[in-house]
Structures are given as structure tokens and as C-alpha cells.
Amino acid sequence: MGDKDESLSPAEEDPWGFLAVPKSARAPKEPGSHSTSAAAESEVVPSARRERGELRAPVAGASLKQRAWPMAAALAGIFFAGFITEVVAASQMIALAGTKSLLIIYPLGGLGLIILGLAQFRLVDGTARLKVLRYATLAYALLFAIALVFIAGGLAPILAVGLIWILADQVNYLLPLLVWSLAGDDFNVAEGRKIFGWLVTWTYVGQMLGLAVALATPVLLQGLNINLSWLLIISPIMCVILALWLPRALRDSSAAKGTGQRESLNESIKGAADFINGVPVWRSLMVASTLTFIAGTTVIMGYGVGIGDLVDRDAANLQIIFAGTWIVALGICWGIQHFFAERIAERVGIPGTLIILPIATAIAAIALAIGSAVGSIALLIVAIVIWRIPRWSLDENARRGALALVPDERRTRVSFLIDLTPVAVGLVVSAPIVALGFATGMLWLPGVVAVAIALVAIVFSRKVMKGWEESLMNWRLRRRKQNRTMGLAE
Question: 114: which DSSP letter?
Fold first, then answer.
């Protein structure tokens, strides 16, 4: 995993120190490159005597935040628009078509994620990521606009709202993946451990603002005779802003240039799959993630079905409950992120953090089963909050840290498999699990099935914990040659 400082005793070796040199200082400069200032800001400064576990190169927090600011603003904007749209569209859909419509929307959303993920799969690591992001945001803006025209004209409103819900789900998953890829290009692992948590905090800012708007508007617009579906216009506007602004904001960055490799779709998929198959612990992580998201999505869908039936499909009340619940969860997530996340990460490491979500999923599924059996809105809210808290905080940080170990030329493709595929499979497979509840009349049954699936996920997560340290020596985790040529200083 790179050269080590031979002057250190084994007890003093820092397993992350080999990646402490900023990428902008290591990467070769291209003719006409404008990344000089970023490289200068991140210049390695020899440090004094190091304590055990201290990074070899000090990380300048201010300069890192300067480099990361456009990405932070982009993540905040994406989630602001995406969360408003998802809450409003979900409320409108249940009000228009009932809770059984979720059995159709969720699988369609999962299939949509897979199809668009494959569409980006070939290009995203071989083409400048900013170009891919610009095309993706403009395409989403166009599709949103078409759906809004149908809603405004009263043409197939159920289909139009369903399309917007699916698009919002994709915006919340696919666009952040592209932005995180930009961050992975620009920051090495040591820098990422300092800055990724800060970026996640900005996702909370966007999410909280979006949910606050979704929570307040049913009350504020009640006497104005304005339909809540007009809030759906926010997403296409945000997509256009991102398409025009972010490429300009990052034009001088050393990130987002792509590897210049051109591969067929089969070669792209094979390259990512070979990486996961070649590092056994990542196979276990893939299985654990898939099982966790099947169980977790069952909790999410069961929550939506339960709340929708209990409030009698009232769109305004649904929007208030959905937004209010998510705000509570995000507030707790922010507290964890701000006060505890770094200490937890240092104490248990990446694999220890990754097992938290499967455990929380099992507990959430138990709460879902009981809440569905007794018809308790409070228990259903507890179930979704238990799931959301680690998903939006500790698990997100750990996944970003793990993916930072993947070579630049494979990272986004591996991210699609590790991050996107489990989510998509969860959306598809959870529908028949929830359908069991409708078919049998036992709405608590999906919660029981989710508990069993989550327990299996915990077993595979334990395999990740046991094999993690050994996996770090796998040659597939090495960076490209120019990224491994470093001058390390004490």
C-alpha cells in the first residue's frame, strides 16, 4: 500500500500516513492547468515530532474548505430541492392513488436508478465528471419540466406525480454520487477524513432547509388557495443552476478531468466487478449493503403505508408528518455528526462504523412490526427515525472513507455497485415483501421479514470487520503510480 517511513518503529507507524500528501501536490501538472493555487495551498509542510497516529502531513483546514466549498454548495442545493420534491410528490401520490401505489412506484424507482446508473457507468470515470454532471442535470431539468406541464394541464396527474417522485429519488442518489466523485478526485484519504464530514454537514443544511419548506408550506399556503404541487417546480430550477454554475466554479480545480480511458459498457462493469471480487472483504460489504437496504427500504415503505392509511390519505397532513419526522431525524444526525462522528470513526474505524446501520435496521424493523400491528403512528415514526439516523450520518461517512481507498480510475464505478445497486435492489425487492402484508391482511409481517434479512446482513458485516485490515494490503487498493510517488516527511 505504498512506501512507509522506515525511521518509524512498528508501534509508531500510521496506516493512513502514506496517503497524507494532497493529490494536487502529487498529480502531474497538465499544460495550461489552473490548479497552481490549489496545489500551493495544500503544500506539504514538514512537521515536528509526530505522536502515534498523527498524520505525517498537516491538513490545512481552511484551504481544504476553500477547495471543497463549491461541492458543499452543490450538495446542499441538490438535497434542498430533492427533499422538497420527494416529500411533496410522495404525499400527493398517496393522496391521489392510495398506499398500494407504493408497490408500483418503488420498483419503478429502483429500475430507473439501475438504468440511469448504467447510462452513466461507462462515461463517468473516463470522461470529465463535470461534463457528465452538466448533461445529467440538464436532462433531469427537462424531464421535470415535461411532468410539470402534464400536471398543470391536468393530463394524467397520477402518472406525472409518479414520474416526479421517481426523478426526485434519482436526483437524491445519482447527483450526489457525481459530486462525491469530484471530492474523491480532489482529496486524498487523509484529507478526506477531515473534509468529508464537513461536506456531509452541508448535505444536512440542504436537507433541513428543504424539509423546513415542506413542513411550513401546508400551513402557510392553506388560506391562499395555492396547490402544494407548485413546490415541485423547485427541482428543475435547481438542476439548471447546477448545470450552469458548478462547472464554472470548479474550472480551475485539479479534479474532474477523468482518466481519459474509453471502455465499452461490458468492460466498465467487468472492471468494477473484478475489483469487488478481487478484494474479498468488498464482496462481503456488497452483500451486507444489499441485504441492509432491502430490509431498510421495507421499513421505509412500511412506514409510508402505515402513515398513509392512518391519516386517511390527506396530502397536507402527510406532507407535515413526513417532513416533520425527517427533520427530527436530521437534527439528531447533525448532533451526531458535529459532536461524535469523528470520535466514533477514530475509535471503531471504517468497518466498525459500517456495521451500525445493519444493527439499526434490525431494531427499526422490530419497531415497524409492532407499530403496524397496533396501528401506532408514534412507533412507525420511531422505526423510520432509527433507520435514518445512522444512514444519514455514520454510515455515509464510513462509505465515503472506504471508497476513497479505491483507485481514481475505478472509484465512481465501484461506488455505483456499492452505493447505488443495493439501494436499487432494495427498492425493487421490498415491494413484494410489503405486498405480503396487503395480501395476508397482516401489515406487521413485512417488519418481521425485514428483521430476518437485517440479521443476515449483520453476519456479513462482521465478516467485513474481521477481514478489513488484511484487505488494506491488497494491490487493487493502490493508487495510480503517480499518486504513489511521494516524498514523505516526518
Answer: H
> How many angstroms separate the CA atoms of 373 and 200, rounded?
36
Helix spans in 122-156 (H): 129-152
Name the amino acid, one letter, at 401: G
* CA 174 to chain centroid: 8
**111 close to 424: Cβ distance less than 8 angstroms:** yes
pLDDT value of position 114: 85
Residue whose C-alpha is closest to residue 87's, from 235, 226, 224 = 235
Q: What is the pLDDT of residue 158?
A: 92
Residue found under cell 493508487: 479
Residue count (the chain)? 490
Helix (H) or strand (E) holding 337: helix 315-339
Amino acid identity of residue 385, one-letter, is V
d(CA 257, CA 272): 19
> Could you read off the pLDDT of 100-156 as tens digits, one per residue?
999 999 999 999 888 877 776 666 555 677 888 888 899 999 999 999 999 988 888
Q: Tell me, what DSSP letter sits at residue 419?
A: I
Domain boundaries 67-248+268-471, CATH class: mainly alpha
Question: Cα(370)–Cα(442) distance, rounded to whole angstroms?
Answer: 11
92 burial (CB, 10 Å; 0-12 / 13-18 / 19+) is: buried
Question: How far apart are the two ends of the chain, measured CA to CA in Å?
Answer: 18
Number of other residues whose CB lies within 10 A of the CB of residue 477:
17
Residue 57 CA to chain centroid, in angstroms? 29
- 460-472 tens-digit pLDDT: 999 999 988 887 7
CA 479 from centre of chain: 23
User: Cα angle vertex 354, ends 348, 359, to 5°?
Assistant: 100
Alpha-carbon gap, residue 315 to 318, rounded angstroms: 5
Give the three cell numbers for residue 87: 416529500
Q: How far is CA 64 from the centre of its chain?
A: 21
Q: For residues 379-409, b (16+ Cβ closer than 10 Å) or e, as one string? A: bbbbbbbbbbbbbbbbbbbbbbbbbbbbbbb
CA 133 – CA 191 distance, rounded (Å):
23
Per-residue DSSP letters for 401-423?
A: HHHTTS-HHHHHHHHIIIIIHHH
